[in-house]
Structures are given as structure tokens and as C-alpha cells.
Amino acid sequence: MANQHSQTNGSSATTLIDDTIRAFDQGQAASPQEGMSLITDWFSSIKNNHTAGDVMEPLRALHEELQTGAPNPTRLQNLLNQLADQTEQMATKTEGDVPSRLTTLATALRNFAGQFSTVS
Q: Which of 38, 46, 86, 88 is the most buried if burial means most Cβ atoms within 10 Å?
């Protein structure tokens, strides 16, 4: 499937946050390919953002795990929870309507991570 999440240069961070939340809510982030697509968009969006730098390492680790072709559910759960924690911390460093969006994103990440606790 083509990278349907790719952002244009003019797209804002809030658009990417909203797109990511929608992807989790609609189950689109469930496939490794869609997950990698979202992560690629996040890499592009935050590469020069020092406030968001803390999420780069868990994003890289998640991307690598998805590339294996057979991601470990426990590892995915841990990485998604780590991203949720970092996202919440990032929310305290932003202004406007971004903090509430980041908090919603953190909740979506945790909810998605919780799905892996039932995978055997």
C-alpha cells in the first residue's frame, strides 16, 4: 500500500497528530507497513524539533521492530508505552491546542499497546 500518511511540506504538526490518532482509532496503524509509514512521517516532522527529540529513539526502535516482519508483541507494547510517556512529557512543553492533542495521542498509543497484552 502506498504511503498514504505522507505529509506535504506545509502540513502542520497538529495535522500529523490528528492523522496519527485517526489511524489508531480506525485500526489503520495495526499493519506494520502503515506503522512504518506513520513513523517515517514523524521522523520528517520532528527531525529539527528539539522539544520532540526524546521521542526519536523509541520511534527508531519501533520502526526497527516493525521491519523484522514478525514483531514481538511484548516489545511493541513496551515501545508504544514508552512513546506514550514521551508524548505526554512533550505535551507539557508545548502551547495552544497542541497539549490536548498530544494527550489524546498518548492515550491512543496506550490503548493500542494494551491490545498486545492479550496476544499470545
A: 38
